[in-house]
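re: ur question from yesterday

yeah so i grabbed the chain u mentioned. its 150 aa long if i counted rite. heres the sequnce exactly as i have it in my notes:
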Amino acid sequence: MSEHRATITWARHGVDFGYKTFPRDHVWHFESGVEVPASSAPGYLGNAQRVDPEAAFVAALSSCHMLTFLALASNKGFVVDSYDDTAVGHLEKNANGKLAVSRVELHPKIVYSGAKQPTQADLDWLHDKAHRECFIANSVTTEVSVVSAS
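ran it thru and got these structure tokens back, copy pasting raw so excuse formatting
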């Protein structure tokens, strides 16, 4: 149906290649021309001024859920003025004892306008359907939950 490409570039630049000293900084290049400075998380000797893969994973889940939610809300006749989410991913050991982002909690704060306002039942349906239709959520085994949905 479609392909999505990213090119990741990293170079040592002459720095010692010991575990504690090799550089974690690298760049994600996307077909659109956007470049994202990336690194490992600071807890894994990365650069706090760059995006780490785990945070990007959480952002991708949140973004996909939001975009799916907005499409569904629009189709149902709800007018969304803003959508803010402070998503939290939990890096912990999975059932196999391996570190994984095993859970992601979405905390959307949504503002609506117009005469048609969603009920709690509407919101529950929208978030459930958004989760079930989100391409990223359908691609992973991570538990994703919506907390304090509005």
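noticed a couple things. The first helix runs from residue 53 to 75. also The chain has two domains: 6-44, 53-146.
anyway ttyl
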